Amino acid sequence: MKIAVIGQSLFGQEVYKELKKDGHTIVGVFTIPDKDGKVDSLGKSLIAEKDGVPVFKFPRWRLKGKAITEVVDQYKAVGAELNVLPFCSQFIPMEVIDHPTHGSIIYHPSLLPRHRGASAINWTLIHGDKKGGFTIFWADDGLDTGPILLQRECDVEPNDNVNSIYKRFLFPEGVKGMIDWNQSAEAIHNWIRGNDRVPGAWAEIDGKNVSFYGSTLLENDHFSSNGQPLEIPGASRPGLVTKNGLVLFGNDGKMLLVKNLQFEDGKMIAASQYFKAALSSTVELSEDEKQFAGFEEFIQMCVRKLRGEDEEEEFTVDYVEKKLNNMTIQIPHQLFINGEFVDAEGGKTYKTINPTDGQAICDVSLAQISDVEKAVAAAKEAFEEGEWGKMNPRDRGKLLYKLADLMEQHQEELATIESIDSGAVYTLALKTHIGMSVQTFRYFAGWCDKIQGCTIPINQARPNRNLTFTKKEPIGVCAIVIPWNYPLMMLAWKTAACLAAGNTVVLKPAQVTPLTALKFAELTALAKFPKGVVNILPGSGSLVGQRLSDHPDVRKLGFTGSTEIGKQIMKSCAVSNVKKVSLELGGKSPLIIFNDCDLDKAVRMGMSSVFFNKGENCIAAGRLFIEESIHDTFVERVVNEIKKMKIGDPLDRSTDHGPQNHKAHLDKLVEYCEKGVKERANLVFGGKQVNRPGFFFEPTVFTDVQDHMYIAIEESFGPIMIISKFSNGDVDKVLQRANATEYGLASGVFTRDISKALYVSEKLQAGTVFINTYNKTDVAAPFGGFKQSGFGKDLGQEALNEYLKIKCVTVEY
């Protein structure tokens, strides 16, 4: 009969051999992928591949609950008449189970139909059964409810446990791990390493079963015959207990060395200590020896739902799929809480809109108060009780590096999602929105094991002495609330530092741009972040953001957004539990252009300072001060360049200027320009919505803007250039005007006179000053504002301090 073997482990290997011995034709072996360079026993080349049997190593057979067509087609191509599933730990679709003429048979550690499922043997003991056993049965739609082919049973003794039943009956019946000494040294070596760490290859020595671990092949010229002989029944010659371990011989005269041995009572020893161990009741184990698996680990591995459950819990995502940008993109659309995508309480959703055409992209789960409670609880447990809180900082860094690598691998998909969700031009999204996000996570990954305290000399308490030192510790559960202009990059700027410091996070993306944050959540799961470390809650600021601000278990909140909302958050954080806050708020960044500048560069960078990312840029130059002698030339050249800009679909590689983020923002820009015209500012270009579907707004230029006007004071957050003129040579006056604002996020100056440039940089009241450039941010350079633009820093080493607390310890001795 033509048989496909679907499974893993030594048991699968033994079944394979028995089927071959009985004259059946194995047409294919389907097992799990290699893990950490280690091949599963069933997939070893010495067995199936040596026989010329094709070996398939599929990571999974299903995706989102549906069979993967390519995988199923490869399976069907082998032409099996029967499937045999020995200890299969993957989800096998019923389409595969039912495909062969004779169906499929499965093995199960229970006397069916008494107990079913992954923990059947446990329930045998829990229910006090007098009989346990082993069942082979036909698979049907219930998986372990099909007709029984064969059963073996054993008595359950009063003091049996899972371990003892497996050792006494199920394991010997299911897996023959005993070493066959009548084979080459290489074959024995492969058998031992194939069962290392579990279940352990074993042989009888002095009437006792002994398991062998840590095998290496030996070269004849590296062998010394100095050692004490050890008789091993069935071996071609006695082994030798040497100072390096136990030397064993194959039937080909070649040798291997075994480092460790384990007795039936679980005692592990160095093989070199075999004869000494026999004389002693206790043995000191090395740390390496303690690493080897006990029998329970084997049980967990091979009884994990004989079929129907992956070795690791399957991570499923209910994607929305879109064919865009010459690719199929997969978009998660649910909340991400405790490592899983879940619906919001009550199944509430809302539509997220593509600003290019005003049409809905998909329905997104809308978080409720109860969802915030679940997310914060998950983050708190992950921090206080979970693996994350115990993790070595360097291992934490490895996770962040892995996440950055995954983001880079998915950068085109992320950039496409960013474009359709926020209106960002694809080329900019790829380079800046996504590119800088990847760089940010890599930068902070490198900081994980470099967060250090210091020692402080203090007055000694004579005659005693004192040692005082500081420690930097993570804060705990952190909430992060981000804006809609750079959805992924704003997430990265805050979350990377937060995680590098060892905190857990609950993040609320902007309600109008949730999709890249949800895709990011998927990547954290693929990177194997522990559950609860990252939680993403799309929802409204008034509900989700407010509850995060008020929550007593949140110890830090990082926010980027408007000054008005920032003030509300600061108040709520103070009243609730005086949680730590960092705020990156509004701006009205001045850019001063002197007549001794490089005018070509000043025009180019001046336009970038305003129109970059459609003006939806927190550090955008909200007001340009142009020295009188070059004012008219500057304006003329800017207008000429604007006329060359292509407005269009952000996914079109030739597009310069995409749609504004959402309809409400577009309407505010129209209103903003109407106020400027009403106050008699000179509208030189633009000022209205583009006549096409979507939320497009013309690049706009106002001149003759006076200091008292609304558009001179308030931020537009759009592609609107506000130009004011200043008198030739009046440096101090223009500085006074530039600083006459309640904002202090960024600023800039263009001049060839370095002394003037440095003088102006000292006087400008802003957290960032650009000289002869603009928008030049870097992951290593701190970013944050003064005055009502907020406080606290993103990026650079300073950002870590926003997510750390300093503890001072004094010892007297």
From TrEMBL:
Give the Gene Ontology MF terms in alphabetical order: formyltetrahydrofolate dehydrogenase activity; oxidoreductase activity, acting on the aldehyde or oxo group of donors, NAD or NADP as acceptor
Which CDD domains does this UniProt record tie to the protein? ALDH_F1L_FTFDH (cd07140), FDH_Hydrolase_C (cd08703)
Q: Which GO terms describe its biological process?
A: 10-formyltetrahydrofolate catabolic process; one-carbon metabolic process
Q: Where is the active site?
A: H108, E584, C618
Q: Which reaction does it catalyse?
A: (6R)-10-formyltetrahydrofolate + NADP(+) + H2O = (6S)-5,6,7,8-tetrahydrofolate + CO2 + NADPH + H(+)
Pfam families for this protein? Aldedh (PF00171), Formyl_trans_N (PF00551)
- Which PROSITE patterns is this protein grouped with? ALDEHYDE_DEHYDR_CYS, ALDEHYDE_DEHYDR_GLU, GART
Q: EC number(s) on record? A: 1.5.1.6
Ligand binding ((6R)-10-formyltetrahydrofolate) = Q90, F91, I92, D144
Residue span, Formyl transferase N-terminal domain: 1-178
Originating species? Sinocyclocheilus rhinocerous
Q: At which residues is there a site annotated Essential for catalytic activity? A: D144
Q: What class of enzyme is it?
A: oxidoreductase
Q: Which GO terms describe its cellular component?
A: cytoplasm
Any idea which positions bind NADP(+)? Answer: 482-484, 508-511, 541-546, 561-562, 668, 715-717
Question: Would you tell me the protein name for this molecule?
Answer: 10-formyltetrahydrofolate dehydrogenase
